[in-house]
Amino acid sequence: MAPTHVLRCCQRGLAWIPVIFIALVVCWSYYAYVVELCIITIPSTGEKIVYLVLFHLSFIMFVWSYWMTIFTRPANPSKEFCLPKVEKEQYEKEERPENQQEILKRVASSLPLYTRTGAGAIRYCDRCQVIKPDRCHHCSACDMCVLKMDHHCPWVNNCVGFSNYKYFILFLAYSLVYCLFIAATVLQYFIKFWTNELPDTHAKFHVLFLFFVAAMFCISILSLFSYHLWLVGKNRSTIEAFRAPVFRNGPDKNGFSLGFTKNVAQVFGDEKKYWLCPIFTSQGDGLTFPTRLVNIDPEQPTVIIQPDSSKSVEDGSVPQSPMSDSQNRLLGSDHHISDDHLSIDPLKSDGTDDITVYLESES
Ligand SMILES: [Zn+2]
Ligand SMILES: [Zn+2]
Questions:
Q1: Which residue windows does the record flag with biased composition (Polar residues) (predicted)?
Q2: Which ligand is in closest contact with the Cα of 164?
Q3: How much of the chain is in helix, strand and coil states, percent to nearest 5?
Q4: Is the pLDDT of residue 316 over 50?
Q5: Which ligand is nearest to the CA of 82?
Q6: Nearest ligand by distance to the CA of 131
Q7: Is 42's pLDDT higher than 60?
Q8: Fewer Cβ atoms within 10 Å of its own Cβ: the N or the C terminal residue of the chain?
Q9: By CB neighbour count within 10 A (0-12 exposed, 13-18 middle, 19+ buried), where does 310 fall?
């Protein structure tokens, strides 16, 4: 076996240590709560039953969302974002970056891309040999490009991105509920520990540590959870919060924000009854995202599209989109379209008669 292969296997194995650590803490907390607290320490049967039922509810939701966050594979760019064979060969032969950019631009002209690198170039991953869709980033830990990558999380040994972001938020929420519930119900027995009212068995040390561990996790999860709720409300990934996405008219940290309600719906879906379930309900395909620059006021009259870009709108009030050459097969595909919204791009940059039409669905 090649040394690099062995090294990689070791790295993969070691990466599970934080997950195993969390799993062991959770197993111990289950044993300590159910056996040592509820069965051994609590004298009242009614109290035991209520605690056990509520504990198991929060435990199941917590384990379910944690499981989904860990074992949902990150979503990768689709085949459309790979260079076609001819262009790929040209790209590899070409040594000058500006010529390589020309090749990328040619391929990207048929893709729904709104964002660029800081220098205004098409975002391309040399490692995966793929044009990066908007909000997609290469994760060096996973060694792949991940759609709407948020961050690589060692506690779940997985990339948090488009495919599992909802699960991750629910994992934080349910772990907070789990810890808060334990801390709140253990508190009175924790106080009894210090006043020497607990029977002198080893159970009392489990009770003591249950409270400490639950309180400690509560504090650390609360800050992370609040931060991610704020990000969901703003429709930003952690990466975008640190470095604003660059559109054709420059960086715009709110470029993907569509307003609080729509931002939340993008992650959690339209149907509120599924919001708290760790099942996939996020909107879209992870390859394209509506940007506020292509959204149009629903009150506006329908526009008349004419080939002549300078006189293409009826009342001249259509907002100008900076992503004119991002004309698109994918945005135009059936499942992206509803007839509610129509916006046009009057600034087709190459001066041809084509005009870019964006159809945005309004929920
Ligand atoms: Zn990549
Ligand atoms: Zn990763």
A1: 318-329
A2: 2
A3: 50, 10, 45
A4: no
A5: 1
A6: 1
A7: yes
A8: N
A9: exposed
Q: How far is the CA of 50 from the centre of ligand 1 (A)?
A: 50
CA distances from 179 to 19, 46, 76, 153, 215 (A): 17, 22, 34, 20, 7
Question: Rounded to an integer, what distance in angstroms lies between the CA atom of residue 259 and that of residue 319?
Answer: 17
> In angstroms, what is the span from residue 126 Cα to ligand 1's centroid?
7
- Residue 164 in contact with residue 148, Cβ under 8 Å? no
Cα separation of 40 and 136, whole Å? Answer: 51
Which is more confident, 295 or 329? 295
Tens-digit pLDDT profile for residues 91-136? 999 889 999 999 999 999 999 999 999 999 999 999 999 999 999 9
> Cα(144) to centroid of ligand 2, in Å?
7
Tell me the pTM. Answer: 0.79
**Could you tell me the distance, in angstroms and rounded to a whole number, from the CA of residue 254 to the centre of ligand 1?**
25
Residue with tokens 């709560």: 33
279 CA to middle of ligand 1, Å? 27
Q: In this structure, which ligand is nearest to the CA of 81?
A: 1
d(CA 299, CA 210): 56
Q: What are phi and psi of 3, to 5 degrees?
A: -55, -35
Give the residue ranges of DSSP H helices in 72-202. 85-93, 97-108, 165-194
Sign of the torsion formed by the C-alpha atoms of 303, 337, 136 and 281:
positive
The residue from 153, 159, 179, 218 that is catalytic is 153
Residues contacting 5, CB < 8 A, separation 6+: none
Identify the band that residue 294 occupies on the pLDDT scale cut at 50, 70 and 90: low
**Letter string b/e over residues 21-36, b meaning 16 or more CB atoms within 10 A of that residue's CB:** ebeeebeebeebbbeb
Q: 288 phi and psi, to 5 degrees?
A: -130, 145
Sequence-ordered list of residues with C-beta below 8 angstroms from that of 235, at least 6 positions apart, any chain: 254, 256, 257, 258, 262, 263, 266
Segment among 85-89, 188-192, 310-314 with least mean pLDDT: 310-314
**Residue 27 annotated to the active site:** no
| Residue appearing with tokens 């508190």 | 187
Q: Of the given ranges (145-154, 219-228, 243-252), which has the lowest mean pLDDT? A: 243-252
What ranges do the domains of the chain cover? 3-73+163-221, 79-160, 293-363
What is residue 333's predicted lDDT score, i.e. its pLDDT? Answer: 36
